[in-house]
Amino acid sequence: MEVITVRNFRRRSIVGLILGLCVVALFGYAGPSANAGGSPPAVRPAGIWSASLEGVHGVAPDATVRQIARVSVSGSGIRLRFGNPFGSSPVVIKEAWAGRPVAPGSARLMPGSNKRVTFRGARSVTIPPGREVVSDAVSMTVAAQQDVAVSVYAPGSPVNDHTFPPFAYDPPASYIGTGGNTASAVSDDAFPGYPVIPGDTSSTATGYHPGQTWWLDLVTADRPAARGTLVTLGDSITDGYNAYGPPGQRWTDVLAERLDALPAESRLAVANAGISGNTVSVQPNPYDPTNQCCGPPAPQRLDRDVFSVPGLRTVLLLEGTNDIGGGDYAPPASAAQVIGAMRSIAARVHARGARIVASTILPMCNEAGSAKENTRLEVNRWIRTSSVFDDVLDFDAVLRDPADPTVMIADLRTDCYHPNAAGDQLIGRYIPLHAVLG
C-alpha cells in the first residue's frame, strides 16, 4: 500500500489543479456535479402554459392567426406544441413565428423580438390526423406573466381549437389576420382588434377572438424558473368561463402569481388543462352530440393534456359538475360513476409518480334533497374522506352561501355553475400552497 505523505499529497494536488485548469480551458466549467452535496438540482424542461384542444371547427382561411399565450413562470429555450387530434386531414403549417407583444394582449410586437419557429430545422411542418409536433427551441426569454405571440400560417388546415369566453382582453386569445402570410410582421396592421368575436364562438372571421386558440396547446421552456409543472385538469370553472368583472383573472392565474413569488427552486409552473363542458367520466357529452365542443372526457385526454407535459409534478382535479348536471344528450351521472372516474384518474396519476389534489364540486343551484344535489353531496363526502388524493381543496366550503348551501354566494357567481372573477380570486388565494407543492 502506498503511503501518502504530505509532500506527495501536495504534488498530486498541484498536478490535479493543472489538469483541472486544462479541462476548463478546453471545455469550460460546468459547475459542481449534480450529485455533489448541497448542489442545486439540474434544470429540467417544464410546461409553462397550456390551452387544451377541444374539437375541430372548419378550415383555416388564407390568413395568419396570431395567438397570445401568457406564461406562468419565466423561462428560456421556448418550444411550442401544435396538435391535430381531431382533424380528418393534415394540418400544414407553412410558417410560424414567435415574439413578445409590446403590451399585455397586444398583437403589436416588440421590435426585434419576432423569431422564426422551425421544426427539426425546417420552416414548415405537416401534422397528420391524430398527431402533434413540438418545435425546435426558440431563442427567446420570457418573464413570468408575460405574453408570447405565436403567429401561424396554415391555410386550408382543419381548425383544432380551444374556445371559451374569458374576461375582456386577458389571454388566451387570438387575432385572425386580414389575409395572406403575415406571420413575420412586427406590426399589428394585419391583425385588427375589431370586430371582437365572442370567445365561445368557433369562427374564422377576421378580428380579435378572446379565448380562442388554434392548434397551439402547449408552451414549454428548456430552462424554466421552476422545478416542475402543476397541471390543472378541469371543466369550465378551471377554463375561466364567465369569470367576468375585476380583477379579471382565472383562479389558475391567481394561483400562478402566488407560486411565482416563491424561489425558483420551490415553485411550480401552471399549465391550464381546463375545457368548458368537459366531463370527468367517460360518457356522451351532455351538451354536444358531435363531441366537438368540450373535449374528450378527462380519462381519455390524460395522456395528451396531462402526462405529456414536461416536468409534471402535480395534477389539480376539479371536475364533475357537467356529469352531475347532465344535459340534452346525457342524463345526470350517479355518484358511483363520478367517484369511479376520479378514482381511476388518481390511480393513473400516481402510477406516473405525480401527486394529485382534488377539489370538492361547487354548488349548482339544485334544490336541497333533489337527486342531483344528493349526488353532489355524496361525491364531496367521498372526496373529503377517501384518502385517494394527496390533498383536498374544499372550494365548495369557500364559495357556498351559508344561508343556502345549494348555491354560491351571490356576489361571487355569474350563474349557477360558475364563479365570477371575484369568486375566482377568492379560491385562487384560498389554495394552500403546500397542497400543490407537496
TrEMBL record:
Q: Where is the SGNH hydrolase-type esterase domain?
A: 233-426
The protein's matches in SUPFAM superfamilies, at most eight in alphabetical order, are given as: SGNH hydrolase
Coiled-coil ranges (or none) = none
Stored Pfam families = Lipase_GDSL_2
Native species of this protein?
Paractinoplanes rhizophilus
The protein's name? GDSL-type esterase/lipase family protein
Query: PANTHER family annotated for this entry?
Result: GDSL-LIKE LIPASE/ACYLHYDROLASE, PUTATIVE (AFU_ORTHOLOGUE AFUA_2G00820)-RELATED, GDSL-LIKE LIPASE_ACYLHYDROLASE, PUTATIVE (AFU_ORTHOLOGUE AFUA_2G00820)-RELATED
